[in-house]
TrEMBL record:
It comes from Fusarium xylarioides. Residues 328-412, 436-461, 570-612, 643-663 are annotated as: Disordered. Residues 495-529 form a coiled coil. Residues 356-372 have a biased composition (Basic residues). Keywords: Coiled coil. This is Uncharacterized protein. Residues 575-584 have a biased composition (Low complexity). Residues 400-409 have a biased composition (Polar residues).
């Protein structure tokens, strides 16, 4: 509302301009409040159109019961039941309802539903509220609903949202797109003509939607014509919308069904486009935030609906959507053009069922036929803004138009089988009047066959009652009712089976998920135990490797010692073998003295050998033990000649006769 927060204050001229802009904005918002009276319960019933649906032709109590059964079994009811239990999260949704009812004359669940080719898709869905608008989406929609671009008509807002969402996720998919507003804009006419041509050819779009609109806009501007403000808004939306490189699978499935999924980012693209127009070209008095702030400041509390009323209104609107999806489709295509003026006169009613309150038995068409409506059949609000209070038509009447607009068929009007339309637009009698007329004319022709047929005199198409007898008509209707009952019962059974299959699948999936989680936990536990055992075995193997290395080192050292002992043993053996060969030589017998000297010499040699052996044994490694000698050596004392020398002689026998030689 105020100027940007700068350090330097605005000059007096700037403050005056800003004040004038704010004053104009406040006056325009006050005028909007004055034009749109506060919502009353009666007005809500008129907008939703569910006052007494059973009283309308073609919708009996059986159809109502089937619809209620579908509603009770639908996931949408589960989401609706959570309203009123989310505490502060219900306040933004309540504000969306208040602004949408008062300034767009629509109920949000009807306006933003597949009836109008839209479906909200949250970035994060929960089991209990996946069908409800998120808090961020509610806040953004509240700011956009009161913008002056829509001029109190919900249809341009729906078209802008479809354009923004399709630019993001649609790519080049050909889903029978068409834009309805404003009817006098040459850019919208050119874009619709191109889309109808592509729809008839059943080929994908040659380019993205924003590029197709830009090309039509360039051609119109190049020819000197002027585009509408709405077309300029679409141009800015196309520049801002970001294309998703990988759309969600659920979004692509909805696109293939002709439903455009929208998210908060699409609403934000519309907001940024409108702000860009307000700042660059001064097409609006203020930004989206400024306009919404003025609406908030001038509004008052206590408006309908309250948070306590919200759940009931949401359920009523959703049930109305269910009714619209099951409306019978009986309008022949060839009578659509003749009823264009009648449809345009009744285009401002709010609900398909509300439009059936007229005496003329004309029935609203359901969603599939609503796409055949011509964009030219809708009037811009700026053409009737000063004539009457603006009322938006229902989504079934204001459904998205498509390629067959040239044939003039309109959504929202169907005729009974036994009713014909006079070429001069005169009064259309009902079935009872036709019956009496046929009976009177039949009797007259019997009395005077020369009377011409009414078809010849008036040039009108004969009604079905003139071609068939009353009993035949009754029989045909009976058969049609039976067929319709069978079809509807089949649909009910199919819905029931689908729900049962879905519930069974969810239960089985939940059971399998829990079993898999348990198995995974067991496997993780076993893996942890196996890892602990592997660690223990690894440590044990490491110790065994260390012991093995030590044992191999000891074995190597003992092998070297054994080899050394074997070599010494071999040398001693050879020495022992050489000694007997010397003793075999013929010599004289030594005297006892020589013998003692010889023994002493042998003892010295033996001592030297013993010392050599001990030197080898001294070098043995630690830990190596030699066998012990159990018997003690025989020690003999041998005196010398002078009695002063004593030697050890291990080889001298202690025999008799030797002692005589020693003193």
């Amino acid at each position: 509302m105020s100027a940007p927060d700068n350090n330097a204050p605005l000059p007096s001229a700037g403050r005056q301009v800003m004040g004038e802009i704010e004053d104009r904005l406040v006056r325009s918002v006050q005028a909007r409040y004055a034009e749109n009276a506060e919502i009353t319960p009666e007005k809500v019933t008129e907008i939703i159109g569910d006052g007494d649906p059973v009283e309308y032709d073609g919708w009996d109590q059986a159809a109502e019961d089937r619809m209620l059964a579908r509603w009770e079994a639908s996931p949408r009811k589960k989401s609706s039941d959570t309203i009123g239990t989310r505490r502060n999260n219900d306040n933004p949704l309540c504000e969306v309802w208040r602004l949408c009812l008062r300034f767009l004359k629509q109920a949000p669940p009807i306006m933003l539903s597949p009836i109008n080719g839209l479906q909200f898709t949250g970035e994060r869905q929960t089991k209990t509220s996946s069908d409800l608008f998120t808090v961020a989406a509610c806040q953004m929609m509240s700011k956009l609903f009161v913008h002056p671009l829509w001029r109190g008509d919900y249809r341009p807002f729906v078209d802008a949202l479809i354009f923004a969402a399709f630019c993001r996720v649609g790519g080049k998919a050909n889903i029978n797109l068409s834009f309805r507003w404003p009817r006098s804009c040459p850019v919208i006419h050119a874009l619709n003509a191109k889309l109808r041509e592509l729809t008839k050819s059943r080929s994908p779009l040659p380019n993205t939607l924003q590029k197709l609109h830009r090309a039509a806009r360039d051609n119109v501007i190049g020819s000197g014509a002027t585009e509408s403000l709405f077309s300029e808004a679409l141009y800015h939306i196309g520049k801002i919308a970001t294309i998703d490189e990988v759309p969600l699978d659920t979004e692509m499935a909805q696109i293939r069904q002709g439903i455009v999924p929208f998210q908060v980012k699409d609403l934000d693209a519309i907001k940024k486009a409108l702000d860009e127009m307000a700042s660059s070209s001064n097409r609006f008095e203020g930004s989206v935030e400024d306009t919404y702030a003025v609406f908030k400041s001038l509004g008052r509390r206590g408006q309908i609906p309250s948070v306590k009323q919200l759940r009931g209104l949401d359920a009523r609107a959703c049930r109305q959507v269910f009714r619209m999806s099951e409306m019978p489709e009986r309008i022949p295509e060839e009578v659509g053009e003749a009823n264009r003026s009648t449809s345009q006169a009744r285009d401002r009613s709010h609900s398909p069922l509300a439009q059936r309150s007229h005496r003329i038995p004309i029935r609203s068409r359901s969603r599939s036929h609503s796409r055949h409506r011509s964009p030219d059949s809708f009037e811009s609000d700026r053409d009737s803004h000063h004539l009457q209070e603006r009322r938006s038509s229902s989504p079934a009447i204001g459904g998205r138009s498509s390629q067959d607009s040239t044939n003039g068929s309109l959504a929202g009007e169907t005729y009974e089988e036994n009713v014909y339309l006079p070429d001069d637009g005169g009064y259309i009698p009902e079935f009872s009047e036709f019956t009496s007329q046929v009976e009177a004319e039949g009797s007259s022709r019997k009395l005077n066959p020369a009377l011409p047929s009414p078809r010849v005199t008036t040039g009108l198409r004969p009604p079905l009652s003139q071609a068939l007898e009353t009993d035949e008509i009754r029989q045909i209707r009976h058969e049609v009712d039976k067929l319709g009952t069978r079809i509807r019962s089949g649909e009910t059974e199919r819905y029931r089976l689908i729900n049962e299959l879905k519930e069974d699948y969810e239960k089985r999936l939940e059971t399998a998920t829990s079993e898999h989680a348990k198995a995974i936990a067991d496997l993780k536990s076993e893996q942890a135990q196996t890892t602990a055992l592997l660690t223990k075995f690894s440590e044990h193997f490491t110790r065994l490797d260390t012991k093995q290395s030590e044992t191999e080192r000891q074995v190597s050292e003992q092998g070297d010692l054994i080899k050394t002992l074997q070599e010494e043993n071999e040398r001693l053996r050879k020495s022992a073998q050489a000694a007997p060969s010397q003793a075999s030589e013929p010599e004289r017998s030594p005297t006892p003295v020589e013998a003692s000297h010889s023994d002493v010499a042998s003892g010295d040699e033996s001592s030297q050998q013993s010392e050599s052996l001990l030197s080898y044994l001294a070098r043995k490694p630690e830990g190596v033990q030699l066998p012990r000698v159990q018997a003690r050596f025989t020690i003999t004392a041998i005196p010398s000649f002078n009695g002063s020398m004593r030697e050890r002689n291990h080889n001298m026998p202690n025999e008799p006769g030797w002692r005589d030689y020693f003193p």
